[in-house]
Each structure stands twice: as C-alpha cells, then as structure tokens.
UniProtKB/TrEMBL annotation:
It is an enzyme of class 1 (oxidoreductase). The keyword Oxidoreductase applies. InterPro entries: NAD(P)-bd_dom_sf, Sc_DH/Rdtase_CS, SDR_fam. The keyword Oxidoreductase applies. This is 3-Beta-hydroxysteroid dehydrogenase. Belongs to the short-chain dehydrogenases/reductases (SDR) family. Keywords: Oxidoreductase. Its EC number is 1.1.1.51. GO terms for molecular function: oxidoreductase activity. Gene3D superfamilies: NAD(P)-binding Rossmann-like Domain. It comes from Cupriavidus necator (strain ATCC 17699 / DSM 428 / KCTC 22496 / NCIMB 10442 / H16 / Stanier 337).
Amino acid sequence: MSQRTEGKIAIVTGAASGVGKEDALLLAREGARVVLTDLNEEAGHALAREIGETALFVPHDIASEAGWQQVMARTEKQFGAPSVLVNNAAILLLGSVEDATLEQWQRVMRINADGYFLGCKYGVAAMKAGGGSIVNMSSVAALGGMGAFCAYSASKGAVAALTRAVAGHCKQSGYRIRCNSIHPDGILTPMTAAFLPGGATALPEEVGGAEPMQRMCHPRDVANLVLFLASDESRFINGAELRIDNAQTIMGVA
C-alpha cells in the first residue's frame, strides 16, 4: 500500500454513497483520517463503521453555515485541523430554462453553489495555518452547458468560477492551500441512474478500450483523481479544471 495520503485529515461531503463514498474509502485506504458528512445518517454511520477508528461521520446539510461550523469543530476535536476538503455533495434536477421553476433553481443553487461557497470559506479558515487541498466537484455542464439541466449547469459553473477565485486568493495571501475542480461528463451513481434509459445500474469495467464512445465513468475513476489532488503529488496543480470525460467535451458532441 502506497499510503499517498498518510497523515492527512480529509473531509468528504456526500460521503454516504456514490462518488463521495468511493473518495472516502480510497483516501482512508491510502492513510488519511476521514470525516464523512451527509444527510443520510444510516448509510453514513455504516460507512464510518466499515472504515474503522480512522473515520468519523457527521450529519450535515452543506448549505447550512451552522452545519459547516459543527463539521469543522468536530473534525478539530476528533483528529485535528483538516488538510483535505472534498466538496462533493450535490443535487441534480431536470429542467430547461423554460421548464425549471424558480423554486427548483433556488434549491439547486442553495446546495450546489451556496454549499460549496461555505465549504471553501470554512475550509480556507481551517487550513490557512497548515496548508491543504480543496477539491470541488463541478461538471462538464460548467464548460459547455446542458440544456435539459439549466439550474444544475449554472450551479456547476459557479463552482468552477469559485474554484478559480479561491485558488487565486490563497496564492495571493501566501496560504499553502490549493483549490481545483473536477469536471466529469457523467458518473454512474444512484443520483444519475434515474436519468438513464431503463435506470441503468451497471457499466463495463473500463471506460475506453472496447467501448471508446462510453461517456459514463465509475465513481472509482473520479476517486482516483481526487486522491491525486489530495496528495502531495499534485503540489503544483492549483486553480485547474480537470475534465474526466473520455474526450467528450473536446469532441463537441452533445
């Protein structure tokens, strides 16, 4: 085992399932102590038990400022100051600019944009003395837009711009904090499966190879990139927008 995150303390939001769960498991396997946050308390506590004494679960609404204050306080008390923050929790609602309601727009923005702002705000405050890495989950929707997901596209665009602002601020302030965004085209998770034909629940083991046009990746593909950004191997990568889309974006194919 390489222990690429040994000695690091990582907070992962939306850790009870999907990408967040894979992130937490991989970071823990590589030596990190992990704080798991989610609204799904049953699954969150189960994952913490699976990982063991190096994990802590905290119930958490990422759009709540008091929630972030509690997460940071419990992290500090249990393990110490965090050195990795993975802003992963998000929601996906169907709706074009014509179909979406203001209520839907505000709900998506509250979680996907406000929640990430608060995560970065409190993450920077917690890390500025010792340094660290913030990883924000965005989407290719932030780069090209998705007509059927108006609010989601806008929220992920906000995440991408926020990431650049945070990276620039930390560099100018002399903080040893990096902030990068990840932009998948699609990930097979419980959240996205509902939008696939027949509610697909399985994919080929590899993206590419025998299926070069495959657009959907596995949560573990994203987790591998999160691990790299969390580790010291990526120490000079800051303010980057990293696509994980099997070249879909550059092909310009909707």
